[in-house]
Design brief:
Blueprint: E1 3-5, H1 6-23, E2 27-31, E3 34-39, H2 42-55, H3 58-72, H4 79-85
Parallel strand pairs: 1-2
Antiparallel strand pairs: 2-3
């Protein structure tokens, strides 16, 4: 985990943002020795938020669980059958 102090973050903010954007690198910001914030790529945050939304939706989670059960029990449809119906 890359942790820097708030004063280091102030002086190197453009570089931190470049690293987050170009290298998908997270940088944790500490205040008085305690991590208080993180700078991370915006698309990674979007992905995490989308995942949390899915995980918090009971209807979607039920459908995912049902899909997994279908796979385990061999209840599958091949691509040719699906594409023929489209």
């Amino acid at each position: 985990m890359n942790v820097i102090s708030i004063s280091q973050a102030r002086s190197t903010l453009p570089q931190i943002i470049d690293q987050a954007s170009a290298l998908a690198k997270r940088t944790y910001i500490s205040v008085r020795g305690s991590v208080k914030a993180v700078i991370m790529p915006a698309d990674e945050l979007d992905s995490l938020e989308a995942t949390m939304q899915i995980l918090s939706d009971p209807k979607t989670m039920k459908a995912i669980k049902q899909g997994r059960q279908d796979i385990k029990k061999g209840r599958l449809v091949n691509w040719e059958d699906i594409s023929a119906q489209i």
